[in-house]
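User: quick one, fold this
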Amino acid sequence: MSTAIEDKVSTVLENRTWRYATKKFDTSKKVSEEDLNTLLEATRLSASSYGLQPYHVLVISNPEVKEQLKAASWGQSQLTDASHIIVFANFADFGDELVDDYITNVSETRGIPAENLNGYADFMKSKLVNLPTETKNNWTARQAYIAFGNAMQAAAELKIDTCPMEGFEAEQYNEILGLTDKNLKAAVVLAVGYRSEEDDTQHYAKVRRSEEELFTLI
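Assistant:
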């Protein structure tokens, strides 16, 4: 293995070892606009099934809103101490418009006549549009999690600390952020900022399953 490749491998693993679920953020440190924009662009570039991105991402820095979200998150301090709170909200339901909007985007981005994409559009609709509403909700939530995972790893590359959070009352989030009226549901939350020196968990050894337990090579 060449030195350049070894360095890349080392960086990839170092970033993931460095990252941990930050429990206490330094309230005096804020993520710069430049780094935040890079993080959001990395999130925008995330993969999704068919490329449809059936979710919306809310970035919250307003202290009053963060206080409300903290109350809906069992009082966890990350909600107010972190620089920004990123809420990944999946589409609660959808119809033909999800595919139609995507096809329009493809047509405009790639300079392809929309009618040339009708076959692909019909194929996607046949697989998705007639699914039960609950199945659609579960599928869109999984898509949101893909973007969430990409955001968390991009943050590690930028040396921005994060705390992935599922410990919140989704219905309260939906109400506070006005999501229900927009056909959205809060799926998962990512607090972003910088670790406090007082956060003892940063010094804990990372605990993961062994390669033998986790992987099967066939």
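User: anything notable?
Assistant: The chain has a mean pLDDT of 96.
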